[in-house]
Specification:
alpha/beta
Length: about 400
C-alpha cells in the first residue's frame, strides 16, 4: 500500500471503524471526533510520516475507535457494568523512566491487585471473565502483534518490556478519548500536544477512564485496582475529582536522567514511522513539557483540595537498590495488607526480572543535547520540593 492510499481523514476512519464493528456508530458522550481531527491535522502537518508511519497511525486511530464503539455498545448490553464501584484505586504517577513499568508489573503479582493487562485493553470487548482470564483467546491475538514491533525496532524490549499478560498503562487507555500524551510519544505531533498541554478538557477523559475500569472489572473484580502512567501529571486534579480516595505512588528521579531516557525511548519509537526523527529536538521538546507537567502535579498536591487522597513518594535510586523493600514501604504507606502468599509472588517476580534481563538500555545526555544545568533550571521547583538536587 502506498502512502497516497492510506487515508487518515476522520470520516474515512469512522466509516472503517463502523465496518470493523458490524455497523456500530455510537461513540457515546464526550468530544471524541474533535480531538481526533486535531490529532490527524497534526499528523499531516507535523509528523513527516513515511508510508509505514501512515499505516501505523491509521491502525492506532482505528484500534482506539473500535474499542470506544465497543465499550459504549457493551455498556448498553450489560447493565452490571454501570453498577460497578471503583474504591481506593492505587495509581503510580511520576516522571517517565522512573521504574514505573516494572513497579506496576510487580504490584500486579499480588492476587488482591487488579491491573489492566495489555491483551484486555487491546481487545476489551466483551468484558473479560475471571474463569477464562488466563486462557482467553484474545491473549494470543494480542501476543501475535508484538513480533512485528520487536523486529522493526530492535532494542525496544530492553527499554520497555511488553507482553500480552503484562500490565498496560492508563495513557494507552486514554487513547479511547483521543486525548492522550501517548500520541506525541509515538509520532511527532507538537501542534496536537500543545493543545493537550494547554487547552484540552480532561474531565471527559477521566469519566471514560472510570467507565473502562467498570467494564474490565464487571466480570473479574479483585480487591483494588493498581494503575499507572506519568501522563496523570497533566491532569492530576481530574484524576482526584474522579477518584477522591485514590492512593498514589509518586516516583522521582533526577530529571536529566529521566528526560534523556525518555528521549531515547521516544526516538526509537518514532523511527518506526518517520525517516526524520531528531534526538536533540525530541529531548528539548519534552524537557519543557515534562517540567510543566511535574510542576502542575506538584501544585495540585499542595493545593489542599484533595484531603482523602494518600500519597507516597518513591525515589528511583531507592527502588533500584532494593525493589522489594520499596514495595513493602508502599504497602505500609498506603495502608494495604500483604498476605504471605502475595509476598512470595512479589519476591519471585522480582528475582525473575533482574535489571538488564531483556538487554541494556544505554544513552548519554550528550547524545541527546541535554544540558544538565538547563534541565535542572527548568525543573527547579520540583527539584527543591522533593530534595532531588545533588
Amino acid at each position: 500500500m502506498t502512502t497516497a492510499l492510506v487515508d487518515l481523514q476522520p470520516e474515512a476512519l469512522l466509516e472503517e471503524a463502523a465496518r470493523r464493528t458490524g455497523g456500530l456508530t455510537d461513540l457515546g458522550p464526550g468530544p471524541y471526533v474533535e480531538p481526533m481531527r486535531r490529532f490527524v491535522d497534526s499528523l499531516e502537518q507535523d509528523a513527516q510520516l513515511n508510508a509505514n508511519g501512515r499505516l501505523i497511525a491509521r491502525e492506532r486511530i482505528l484500534l482506539h475507535t473500535v474499542n470506544r464503539l465497543q465499550y459504549v455498545r457493551d455498556r448498553g448490553l450489560y447493565p452490571e457494568i454501570a453498577r460497578q464501584e471503583i474504591e481506593k484505586p492505587v495509581f503510580i504517577v511520576g516522571m517517565p523512566r522512573t521504574g514505573t513499568t516494572i513497579l506496576h508489573d510487580i504490584l500486579a503479582q499480588d492476587p488482591s491487585n487488579r491491573a489492566p493487562l495489555t491483551w484486555e485493553t487491546m481487545f476489551p470487548s466483551p468484558p473479560p471473565t475471571a474463569a477464562t482470564f488466563e486462557t482467553d483467546p484474545r491473549i494470543q491475538a494480542c501476543a501475535a502483534t508484538f513480533p512485528d514491533v520487536f523486529d522493526q525496532i530492535p532494542g525496544f524490549k530492553a527499554m520497555h518490556p511488553m507482553g500480552a499478560q503484562l500490565t498496560q498503562e492508563c495513557v494507552t487507555m486514554m487513547g479511547e478519548t483521543m486525548i492522550t500524551v501517548l500520541f506525541h510519544n509515538q509520532f511527532r505531533v507538537p501542534t496536537y500536544q500543545d493543545w493537550v498541554d494547554h487547552e484540552a478538557d480532561f474531565a471527559p477523559v477521566y469519566d471514560f477512564h472510570r467507565k473502562q475500569l467498570q467494564h474490565l472489572q464487571s466480570r473479574h473484580a479483585l480487591d483494588r485496582w493498581v494503575l499507572k502512567t506519568g501522563a496523570h501529571m497533566w491532569s492530576l486534579e481530574h484524576l482526584l475529582a474522579t477518584y477522591p480516595d485514590a492512593r498514589i505512588v509518586f516516583t522521582h528521579r533526577d530529571p536529566v536522567d529521566s528526560v534523556t531516557s525518555y528521549a531515547s525511548l521516544t526516538h526509537l519509537v518514532r523511527t518506526m514511522g518517520t525517516d526524520h526523527a531528531d534526538r536533540k529536538e525530541i529531548a528539548a521538546d519534552w524537557t519543557g513539557r515534562l517540567a510543566r507537567a511535574a510542576h502542575h502535579a506538584l501544585h495540585v498536591r499542595e493545593s489542599g483540595d484533595h484531603p482523602d487522597a494518600v500519597f507516597y513518594d518513591m525515589r528511583f535510586t531507592d527502588f533500584v537498590k532494593d525493589q522489594y523493600r520499596e514495595v513493602q514501604a508502599i504497602y505500609e504507606a498506603l495502608g494495604l495488607p500483604m498476605s504471605d502468599g502475595a509476598a512470595k509472588r512479589l519476591r519471585a517476580f522480582i528475582d525473575d526480572h533482574p535489571k538488564g534481563k531483556y538487554g541494556k538500555h544505554e544513552y548519554t545526555p550528550e547524545e541527546y543535547g541535554v544540558d544538565p544545568a538547563a534541565v535542572h533550571e527548568a525543573f527547579g521547583e520540583y527539584l527543591d520540593h522533593f530534595g532531588l538536587r545533588g
